[in-house]
Amino acid sequence: MKKGLLLFSIVAALCLVVSACGPAAGPSADVIQVGGIGELTGDIPAVGASFKNAAEMAVQEINDAGGLEVGGKQYKIQLTIEDNAGKADQSASAAQKLITQQNVVAIIGPNASRYAIPASEIAESSQVVLITPWSTNPKTTLDANTNQPKKYVFRACFIDPFQGRVVAKFALDNLQAKKAAVLYDVASDYNKGIAEFFKQTYEENGGQVVAFETYTTNDKDFTAQLTKIKDTQPDVIFLPNYYNEVPLQVQQAHRLGLNTPFLGSDSWGSPDLIKLCGSDCEGYYFSTHYAPDVATPTATKFIEAYKAKYNSAPDDVAALTYDAFGLLWMALQNAGKVDRQAVRDALAQIPKYEGVTGTMQFKDGSGDPIKSAVILQVKNGAFVWYANANP
Amino acid sequence: MVYILQQTLNALQLGSIYALIALGYTMVYGILTMINFAHGDLFMVGAFFCFIAATFLKLPFVPTLLVSMAGVALLGVLIERVAYRPLRQAPRVSAIITALGVGIFLENFTLVFSPYPQSVPQLIPNISWTIGGITISSLQVIIILLSLVLMLLLDFLVRRTMVGMAMRAISWDKTIVPLMGVPLNLIISITFAIGTGLGAAAGTMYSLAFPVIDPYMGILIGWKAFIAAVVGGIGNIRGAMIGGFILGLVEIMVAAFLPSTYRDFVSFTLLLILLIFRPYGILGKPRPQKV
What is the ipTM of this complex? Predict the structure, then answer.
């Protein structure tokens, strides 16, 4: 009994200390600290730039409107963006820094799966919400040891099994392609995952994958693999690779006389693809998150504000980043208090969020939203809507 | 058969690029017994000079190539003068670390100038010919022929001219030869200019064949070309050419006949086995240490 009393008093004292120190530890009580991690330098800086633009826009909108109302009180948002330099280890250390030094309530980013996965491990073990806008690999929100969803990691995009299925079905049904070849980066989580999901669905539905070729990040010469692919005479070639590599692959294929249609995934969706590819990518298709040319009113508002601010059309990274922040604002408001655990609980129960990239819903404790995809076509140097694909 | 010939053509294209870069490593090593680890990054700067000349100055192919080669040759001479010459008497490790530092400097300097991958305009009209089932592109023909011409010129220079004779003499003995009236510093500068200029030629052709360039493009290919130089026998010019073609051939053929995932693993294992049997490379000779 005495021991119980002692324990109780220790806990009570600790509670007092924590509650006394809690608000004083932050720089100001009326500011919510939010962290961002982006690929500002490294191999995909266009992704980081879109992320930063959209993040700053989302925060500025809230602050210009007088702040975010949480539990009857107006809070200003303070955003700290860290650069992960396109490196997995720097993504993890950036997450650590934001959580321990900036004391953020939640982190948005990183975007590519190979950086989002290490950062998500830190967020999960520190019990801080992390929403990745663009990472589509299932491992980002899934605990590798227990195979259960991570509790604190969410995303604003669909996942690769879904995307792989969408592209495989599209190749079979719309393009009537019975033989497909795949060339992908075996050293990158995203590319590898989506290539495997594509192969699985394609073969289950009666297609035949005649070549399944790989390379490693930073390779520029794909002639050996493409010559091999040409030898198997595929009807379609699937390239689930990043926008900086796809142009090289397509151009080298053309030089070898390979003229089948090419298919891609959401990693194609940067305006830089067209800049680097020129006319070589004309007419090809890829799956992605939203079509800027057939936008909903929410999307139109965002696209116009973005164009006015940055003088360029927002790509999918920008749209998803904006949605990730939108989800966070909604979770904060639903939680009614600025508290990491309360924000996590509110986020996991969002019944319906009308975002730029469509309607999202979180269910069953999973961090993967239920939402649809679109197929875009490269046409006259722009991305044009071609088809919808529902979950 | 057609398949093998097509892959051989791919290998020749890749191999001639490796060979041109490997020459830069081997020439500097031959004359200074120092490995210029910044060479891969000078190759990258060559690609960026090509990009600048073609995009902003709107030059056609041959002037672009010359601008890039001259620019990088000057840069190579400058780097030797500023970074390597003061360390010529220092332990060799210091020079190697300095070279690594120069490489990182070049990468980050270019990064400040352009963090985005850049697209190099098409300077050579892309024409493909199909002969007996083999597809040959105009670019492949130009890359392979131009590399061969440059290598023959270099071979002639080193073996048949006074400058070449001076280079070979200095590589034989750096202490005695200058006493006989050979201008040591001038010959070393010329060696750097030629070595880095060839690297820039490789960079230009590489950026035309693979027209997406970024500041980190030189690292991996620099390592591979260095390995090619070692396989051929570092310090030996013909060895570097052979080493480049062997590396290109092995890389392409492994990817052509085995799953491409094993490419680097198998090709570098093969090269390691080769070095076990010929530790000084294919044409390299052991250098007796003078006491």
Answer: 0.82
